[in-house]
Design the sequence.
């Protein structure tokens, strides 16, 4: 009993000292209102509109739960649907936070991520259940060289946050980081269309010795042309995935 009191007294004090030293060395300011203390303060997060985007990933028009229209699913299109949180806007707090994450190597203080996903889930709970139940969450991998430079994969952080908030809603999806990026896709322009398609598909690889999950949610920070996500989906389907949906925070 005495020991418990001791522990519960010591731990908060220790944490308090550590975090105050850290805040003094690297003060954190809210990306939105500029107030000191949090990367994105709770007050600003609450005011952020995260209704979610459910558009066809090919034509960007309204679609059922973000499912690819059957008329849009041409040959070599592998992504079955896409869910994104907000449109890409240069000055939106979410865009700036992701840039901070990717280019300034700020991987801590990413608590905002799970929180913003919670707000979005509150709007979309039923839909999301339908889309994300019984899937394996797979972050779009970085090339090894890029991963070394950055020290972490931002898509993995998002995948982990997504897993956490889904589990809070009773959806117990696991994260798998088995997908590999085999090489940079360069010099695409010089290749003929067929060769280009081959080149794109071989940019990602699921390890031969591993069984590929049948139903996958591919996670990335931003969806623009869809080329990357589509080639990752293609690589998964080539080794047995039946259904691959995309999930991104931003949509260009
Ligand atoms: Zn703020
Ligand atoms: Zn469409």
Sequence:
């Amino acid at each position: 009993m005495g020991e418990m009191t001791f522990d519960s007294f010591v731990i908060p004090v220790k944490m308090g000292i550590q975090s105050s030293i850290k805040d003094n060395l690297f003060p954190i300011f809210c990306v939105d209102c500029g107030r000191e203390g949090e990367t994105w303060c709770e007050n600003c997060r609450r005011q952020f509109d995260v209704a979610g985007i459910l558009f066809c990933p090919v034509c960007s028009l309204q679609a059922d739960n973000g499912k690819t229209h059957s008329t849009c699913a041409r040959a070599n299109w592998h992504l079955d649907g896409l869910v994104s949180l907000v449109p890409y806007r240069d000055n939106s707090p979410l865009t700036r936070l992701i840039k901070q994450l990717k280019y300034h190597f700020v991987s801590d203080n990413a608590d905002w991520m799970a929180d913003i996903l919670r707000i979005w889930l509150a709007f979309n709970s039923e839909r999301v259940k339908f889309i994300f139940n019984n899937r394996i969450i797979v972050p779009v991998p970085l090339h090894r060289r890029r991963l070394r430079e950055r020290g972490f994969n931002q898509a993995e952080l998002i995948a982990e946050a997504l897993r956490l908030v889904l589990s809070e809603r009773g959806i117990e999806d696991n994260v798998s980081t088995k997908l590999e990026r085999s090489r940079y896709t360069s010099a695409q322009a010089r290749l003929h269309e067929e060769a280009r398609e081959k080149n794109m598909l071989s940019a990602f690889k699921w390890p031969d010795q591993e069984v590929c999950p049948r139903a996958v949610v591919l996670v990335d920070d931003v969806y623009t042309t869809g080329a990357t996500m589509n080639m990752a989906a293609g690589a998964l389907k080539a080794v047995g995935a039946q259904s691959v949906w995309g999930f991104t925070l931003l949509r260009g």
Notes: The mean pLDDT is 83. The pocket of zinc ion (ligand 1) is lined by residues 30, 32-33, 35, 41, 43-44 (CB under 6 Å). The longest strand covers residues 215-223. Strands lie at 81-87, 136-139, 174-175, 180-181, 204-205, 215-223, 243-251.
